[in-house]
Amino acid sequence: MKEIVVISGKGGTGKTSITASFAVLGGKNVVVADCDVDAADMHLLLEPDFGIAEAFYSGELAVIDQELCSGCGACAGVCRYDAIPVIDGKYIVDAISCEGCGYCARVCPEKAITNVEQNVGNWYLSKIRTGSSMAHARLKSGADNSGKLVAKVKNEARKTAEQTGRRLILVDGSPGIGCPVVSSLSGASLAVMVTEPTLSGLHDLKRVYNLVHKFGIKAGCIINKADLNQDVLRELRSFLDQEEIVNLAEIPYDDSFTAAITNGRTIVEWDSSLKERISACWASIRQIVGMD
C-alpha cells in the first residue's frame, strides 16, 4: 500500500484544493484522509455522507466536586497555569487553561478533584462522491492533541484501504512543521510539498523540507501561482535542483481555480486550462510511487 501525503510549509498555497483534485482524478481507487484536522475543509469539495461518526477523547481535564471542596485554595496555589480562578466564591477549573497535569488533585486535602478524559472532537468515516471513502475529523474550538487525532484518521484510512482492497491512500496534511504534520508524514511513500513563489513560501518550503528529509521520505514539489514573482520562482527552482527534489508542476495563477471552488468543484472538473496540467502532475506522482 502506498501513501501520498500533500503538505505545505504555510497556509494559503492551495494545498487542499490540489489534494481534492487528485482525489477526484484517483476516483474510487484512492482512499482519502483529511489530516488537516485543525482546519478540515476537504468535505466542502468531496461531499462526504458522514456515515460513521465517533467522539474522540484525548488529554485530561481537572474537575472539582463542589460538594467536597472546602475552599482552602491549595489547588489554585499550585497551578502554574492559573487555571483555577475563584468565581462567585467557588474554585472553578478553566477548561481552556487546564493542562490536566493532576497536581491540583494530588494536593487537595478533601480529595475533591479528579481528572477526566476530554472529548476534543469527532472523527468520521464517509462515502464521498468519487465513489471511494474518506477518513476525516473535526476538533472542537480550542482543543489540543491534534497529533493524536491525525494518527487516528490515518489509521482509519489504512484500515478502510485494507478492507476494500485499495492500494493508495491520499493524505491532506496540515500546514506548518508541528506535531500534526509529523503525524501526517508517518509511513508516507511520497511527500508532495505545495508552495508559492513568495518569500514566506520559499522560507517555509525549506523548513518543511528539512522535516521531510529527516524522515528520509522521497519529496516532490508543486509551485502554485507560479507567475506571482519571477525572482522568487528562480530561487525556488534553484532550491529544488540543489536538494534534488522533483519539480512536479508549476501552476500559473488562474481565477478559474477560485470559481471552481466556490461552486463546490475541483479545478479538474472545471472548464479550465489547468485541468491537463494537474492531471499530468497526478500521473507523474502515481508513476513515482510505482502505481503505474
Automatic annotation (TrEMBL):
InterPro entries: 4Fe4S_Fe-S-bd, 4Fe4S_Fe_S_CS, CobQ/CobB/MinD/ParA_Nub-bd_dom, P-loop_NTPase
Gene3D superfamilies for the chain: 3.30.70.20, P-loop containing nucleotide triphosphate hydrolases
CDD domains from the UniProt entry: SIMIBI_bact_arch
A Pfam family assignment: CbiA
Transmembrane segments: none
PROSITE patterns per the UniProt record, alphabetical: 4FE4S_FER_1, 4FE4S_FER_2
GO molecular function: ATP binding; iron-sulfur cluster binding; metal ion binding
Protein keywords: ATP-binding, Iron, Iron-sulfur, Metal-binding, Nucleotide-binding
Keyword Ligase: no
Protein origin, superkingdom: Bacteria
Descriptive protein name: ATP-binding protein
